[in-house]
DNA sequence: TGCTTCGGTGAACGACTGTGCACTATCAGG
DNA sequence: CCTGATAGTGCACAGTCGTTCACCGAAGCA
């Protein structure tokens, strides 16, 4: 025997997650049927229930998994910030890392981008919550940057929200234009310009007392 | 007789559009069935075909209709800009108009926000195209603002994209928090702050030669 | 007035949906 | 080694789905 029982179960679970991720590439979770997933995995429909209570539960598992990818990206971005010299370097490396991760975890980013707006309510809620956490983290990062010493925490959150929104939009645009390296290069350059514009504005900003 | 034949037909068509819009409030077009719509309207499923070739065609019609609402908003924004005094006034009035229109045309904005990411490919494409047109228009508006005389057209587009992205995100957030006036007020204030930050950055910006 | 056009009807089809239940085969632990 | 747990099977059920077809009745034009 080469596999223990829990290993086999985990393998099937993974196969289900992968199948769902694959089927979600050009549709949404709400238009996904249990039977499609089962057929893709190569199991009988009822066996699905051995692993997930419903498609919605599957979706929540995919949210968790996808945000592992996203957080890995944020870790890389932070490491880049530590190594980089000035603002320009931070912007350049951060966008490069974004582009790279979107490529490597295309399915996860696509899933988040789509289900954020279209998934079952609980999935939407979960994604919204995770993104809010990311914004909060970014806000504390921004607080450490020179020039933001006197900012109110509200303003930090607002700036953080703007940056996250712009980067999410960039990721979506990259996903739409996958397999078009020229367009993608332009999108990355645009994202860098946007970040620079925002940071220039931020450096001039003074919070109201 | 109170109604001519074309009037009756148009009335049914409207009823179908309204029913679809209503059913799309908490689901997506791809999870919408022809029979649901027909039942909601009060006609037999096959009668649907007298008005639309498919659900997808219905979606494209809804895109057209929704962007009529959105363009009406942009017209109001431009009128506000003409009347307003300085940058601060423009920002304040623009965001107010956004909030107001999102309320008045809740279903249309919700539809765009959702199907933009989750709709059938042709619907996504149509929405993407319309938003791009809006960005283009905003770019020409920005070109008329004092301080952007020396900007490259690329930079104008990039700034326009950033602003549109931020405003779309604001509209989505308002839709999520509908019926919570306190949250909504905060969101509007955040949007104003973001616009001010961006404009401050833009005023300092100099395009590369 | 008579004929045509056409929005809407109703039955029928084959395919697909989620879910329940009884079953089997196999691995893990006593 | 035997026994209980359990991942996966197979069948069945009642719905819903999109689409077809022949048909109806009233509006509109001649």
From TrEMBL, chains A, B:
<keyword id="KW-0804">Transcription</keyword>
<dbReference type="InterPro" id="IPR009057">
    <property type="entry name" value="Homeodomain-like_sf"/>
</dbReference>
<dbReference type="Pfam" id="PF21943">
    <property type="entry name" value="TetR_C_46"/>
</dbReference>
<dbReference type="InterPro" id="IPR054129">
    <property type="entry name" value="DesT_TetR_C"/>
</dbReference>
<dbReference type="InterPro" id="IPR050692">
    <property type="entry name" value="HTH_transcr_repressor_FabR"/>
</dbReference>
<keyword id="KW-0805">Transcription regulation</keyword>
<feature type="domain" description="HTH tetR-type">
    <location>
        <begin position="10"/>
        <end position="70"/>
    </location>
</feature>
<dbReference type="Pfam" id="PF00440">
    <property type="entry name" value="TetR_N"/>
</dbReference>
<keyword id="KW-0238">DNA-binding</keyword>
<protein>
    <submittedName>
        <fullName>TetR family transcriptional regulator</fullName>
    </submittedName>
</protein>
<feature type="DNA-binding region" description="H-T-H motif">
    <location>
        <begin position="33"/>
        <end position="52"/>
    </location>
</feature>
<dbReference type="InterPro" id="IPR001647">
    <property type="entry name" value="HTH_TetR"/>
</dbReference>
């Amino acid at each position: 025997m080469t596999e223990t029982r829990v290993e086999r179960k985990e393998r099937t679970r993974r196969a289900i997650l992968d199948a769902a991720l694959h089927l979600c590439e050009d549709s949404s979770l709400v238009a996904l049927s249990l039977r499609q997933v089962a057929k893709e995995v190569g199991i009988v429909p009822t066996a699905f229930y051995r692993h997930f209570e419903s498609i919605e539960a599957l979706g929540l598992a995919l949210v968790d998994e996808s945000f592992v990818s996203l957080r890995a990206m944020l870790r890389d971005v932070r490491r880049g910030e530590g190594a980089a010299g000035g603002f320009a370097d931070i912007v350049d490396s951060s966008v490069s890392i974004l582009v790279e991760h979107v490529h490597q975890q295309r399915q996860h980013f696509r899933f988040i981008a789509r289900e954020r707006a279209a998934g079952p309510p609980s999935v939407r809620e979960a994604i919204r919550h995770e993104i809010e956490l990311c914004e909060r983290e970014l806000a504390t990062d921004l607080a450490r940057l020179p020039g933001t010493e006197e900012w109110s925490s509200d303003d930090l959150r607002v700036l953080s929200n703007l940056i996250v929104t712009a980067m999410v939009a960039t990721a979506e645009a990259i996903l739409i234009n996958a397999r078009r390296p020229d367009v993608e290069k332009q999108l990355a350059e645009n994202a860098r310009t946007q970040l620079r514009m925002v940071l220039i504005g931020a450096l001039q900003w003074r919070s109201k007392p």
